[in-house]
Each structure stands twice: as structure tokens, then as C-alpha cells.
Amino acid sequence: MNTDTTYKIYPAVSEVPTNWDTIAHSNIFLSTAYLKALEKSAPANMICHYIGLFQNQELVGIALSQFLDLNKVGSFGERDNCLKTSVRNFVFKNFSSHVLFIGNNMLTGQNAYALLDTISNTDAVALLFQASEALKEIFRKKRLKIHLTVFKDFSETETEYFKTPDFASFYRFTTQPNMVFDIPESWQHETDYIQALTKKYRDQYKRSHKKAEAIQKKKFSLDDIQAHNPVINRLYENVAKNAPFNTFFLADNHFYKLKKLLKDQFLFYGYFLDDKLIGFNTLIKNGTAIDTYFLGYDEEHQREKMLYLNMLYDMVAYSINKGFSKIVFARTALEIKSSIGAKPQEMYGYIRHSNPLVNRHIARLFKSLEPETLWQERNPFK
To answer: Phi/psi of residue 275, each to 5°?
Structure first.
């Protein structure tokens, strides 16, 4: 590694270098606007730090770290009530409750760092390893022992940067893939998408839209989000608590702060039935890509009106009509996302336990604790 490279850790967004955003331009999730929103509305069990990478005292890279205290999560997920879930929850609470992420545990994809061309990825990852060790010491002084250190999410190509002695004791893992919809350049309008579907999936599209005929969709302003905030939080929690596994829950003001700081880059859509808010979804513009963010819905209407599927179709329509190149649908609900055209992209992470004895068995432990997802990939196109 270049001996003139160093790092610096910042505890607040207000303290990062003034030219931070010149590097963050390629990823909104590393921009000061997003990081400020996260800082002001982070989950109750999360502490963020911001890492500057320097070469000859010039800022050449930026990164995000998140500390999560799983002891403060009331429920890891209520959907699966079985012995394996109980064992997993016990292990996390007692042996792996303090987790340090280099990256963003709230998102899927490489949102850990961004660089200028003047520093190599290998040098940057080496600096981030050093920074992770320094962060462990920062938390130790606060009497918080880090149990797990995790670097996430990286593509197969990006895993090459981790083939160094620093990461020899880390376990490379993969979980559910990132579901990504690449939009063909020739598509100009939603109708191009509908015409590309096979009859079976075009019928699914028509059937779902017919089910939702009575639903009105509204684009929310900042004031709308504030006015509907109690219902928004209830709908979000309904979905979050039914997830197979949770490491955090969003703060009550999260969407309000995002809209306030990201403005038109953050889109919030409410779905109404008889003037009652029954669901919502959110999108974030990230350069030429659309990232789907959190959503919520009333379970009764979701089933009856095929609400979730209609939300996915709405996301596809918006992204095509507005000229975006791809949609990042993230993890979860793999099969239904596959049925509307998203393709799986494997993502990898690196994990290490602070206890060497536990770490020797980390591969077996990780596989036994990771919720297994069985699904069938679909291809809706001709």
C-alpha cells in the first residue's frame, strides 16, 4: 500500500471535508444530503461514522460505517416462529449483538465507499480495514465491544480487492441476491415493457391492475408525509415486523427527513382506498438508476388488491417513462420481483467474529443462522 495514504474518522457529517460531495457524486447514498438525513433519523440502535481516505493529504475516497446494537432491537422478525429462529435470536443477543458494518446495512449494493481514480480499490480496502480496527477501539472506550465486523455488499469482481492478508481471517459470505432490473435502451414508455411480456405475464399485469382499479395513487410532498406520518409508520411496521429477520427499525421521522434533505431525489407515493391511506412506496434517484427504498401496506388490502405487485409495476413504469437505465429492487420477495423482470445479482460480504474460537467456526455458524430462502426464478419476457 502507498505509504502516503491515510484515513480519518469523523463522528458527524458536519465535520467531513468540504469537498466530500465531489467524490460522492457517483452515489447519492454517500452524499452529505443523504448522510445528514440518516444522521437525523437513524434507527435507535445505530451509530454512524464517516471515513475520509487521503493520499498526500488530499481527499481521494469516502466511506460509511454503521454500528448496530442488536440488544436494542425489540423483534428480529415475527414471521418465522420456530426453534431455529429462537436459537438464532439467542445467539445474536448474547454473542453477536454489537456489529460494525463498513457499508450501509439499510441498503443492498456497494454503498460502502467511493473513490477518485488516483487511489486503487485495493489500497482503499486496506485503509478501510485499518479504519475498522480504529473504530473498534473508539467503541471499546465507550465500553462497547464489537463482536462482528462486516464489510458489505460487493460483486464477484470487487471481491478481488479483499484477497489480502488483512482479510485472511474473514469469512466470505453470500446471502439473498440483489434483484436488479436493467431497462433496455430501446424502451421509451411503459407500453414497451407491456409488449415485451409473454401472454402469461401480460395477463398477470392486467389482472393486478384490474384488482387495483379503485385505488388512487398520490405523490407526497413534505407536508403530506408529515400529515400522514402516524399511518405511514404503522404501515411500515406492519411490513417490517413480518420480515424473516430485522437488525433495525426506521425512526418515526425517517421519511420526513429524507424528503426534506433529498428533495426531488426522494419520491414518496401514497396509495388510497376510499380516502384512507392503505400503502406507500419510496424511490431514490441515484444517477441513472432508481433505487427502491422502504414501503408499507395494510395486509388485508395488499392481498385483496394485489397492492405490492402493483407497486412493483408502478416502479417499473416510472423508471422507463423517466429514462432511467436500471432499477435496484434490493433483497426480499425474490420470486415476485423476478416475475416482473428483475434478475438476481450475487452480492458478497466479509465477516469476522472478535472471538478467535468462535471465528474458527464462523462459516458453520453463519450458515445455521442465515434464514434460508427457496425461490424459483421467473422470466416474464418473450
So the answer is: 65, 15
CB-CB contact of 183 with 325 (8 Å): yes
Q: What is the pTM of this model?
A: 0.92
Residue 276 C-beta-side C-alpha neighbours within 13 Å: 7
With pLDDT > 90 as the criterion, what percentage of the chain qualifies?
Answer: 82
Q: Which three cell numbers stand for residue 363?
A: 462459516
**Whether the predicted pLDDT of 277 surpasses 50:** yes
Q: What is the pLDDT of residues 75-128, one digit of tens each?
A: 444 444 555 555 555 555 556 789 999 999 999 999 999 999 999 999 999 999
- Give the CATH fold of the 5-175+347-369 domain: Aminopeptidase (3.40.630)
Cell of 31: 452524499
CA dist., res. 117 & res. 95, Å (int): 40
Report the C-alpha gap between 104 and 188 in whole angstroms.
33
Distance CA 368, CA 1 (A): 36
- What are the residue ranges of helices labelled H in 70-198? 83-95, 121-141, 190-196
Q: Which CATH architecture has domain 179-345?
A: 3-Layer(aba) Sandwich (3.40)
SS3 99: strand
Domain ranges of the chain: 5-175+347-369, 179-345
- 5-175+347-369 and 179-345 share one CATH topology? yes
What average pLDDT does the structure give for the chain? 92
